[in-house]
Amino acid sequence: MTDAARHSLFEDVQGIAFGSAMAAFSVTILTHLGLITGQTAGLAVLISYLTGWSFGIVFFVINLPFYWFGYRRFGMAFTIKTFCAVALLSALNLLAPDWIAFARLNVAAGAVLFGMVCGTGLIALFRHGASLGGVGIVALAVQDRWGWRAGWVQLGFDAALFGLALVLLPDWRLIAWSALGALVVNSVIAINHRRDRYIAT
């Protein structure tokens, strides 16, 4: 069995760096296609679309209130790791436009690719005792408390956000493709991040 407490400092650093980088890349795919996602990241994407503000800055600010909850529920190490993951994702997102561009990306393939890349990044963070904050912290708390898989918990949160997006965004087809991406993310987590094998705290 693998436990976050058994990872060395180097392993945690590379795991958090990898997970944050994969998540940042997935957001680049997502926003290039004009899609949204669920959880706190989805709310940040929606706000960035509606206001023109940078996703990285919005995501960083939205997460600030959740760190106290993370500290109370999971402890200082988890909170520090999560803060670092969120800060790194936000910074990488600000740099992404200068580093990455897509000449052509099919929306269906992009939605699935987003889901796989994001899910992989989140699993890496979970296995190294971190998350991307916000709803992710709540989902991990629910999994720890009642044994409900974090991916399915997050899927429930996503439903409300997608309902809001249907009202605020003009193209329902992009919302449908976004739902596919969110389903892939949460399926990857639910299938591969099992509480009886990997503990986030």
How far do the termini sit from each other?
A: 14 Å
How many helices? The count is 9
C-alpha-based Rg, rounded: 16 Å
Main β-sheet: number of strands, strand sense, barrel status?
Answer: 2 strands, parallel
Average pLDDT works out at 86
How helical, in percent, are the residues? over 70%
H/E series: EHHHHHHHHHE
Q: How many β-strands, per DSSP?
A: 2
Backbone structural class: mainly alpha
Please tell me what the overall shape is: globular
Q: Return the domain count.
A: 1
Q: Enumerate the spans where pLDDT stays under 50 for 5 or more consecutive residues.
A: none
Strand order across the largest sheet = 1-2
Report the β-strand fraction as a percent range. under 5%
Description:
With 201 residues, the protein is an all-alpha fold. The protein has 9 helices and 2 strands, in the order E-H-H-H-H-H-H-H-H-H-E. Strands 1-2 form a two-stranded parallel ribbon. Helix 3 runs antiparallel to helix 5, helix 4 packs across helix 5 and helix 7 packs antiparallel against helix 8. The mean pLDDT is 86. One of its GO terms (cellular component) is plasma membrane. It is a multi-pass membrane protein. Keywords: Cell membrane, Membrane, Transmembrane, Transmembrane helix. Its main location: membrane.
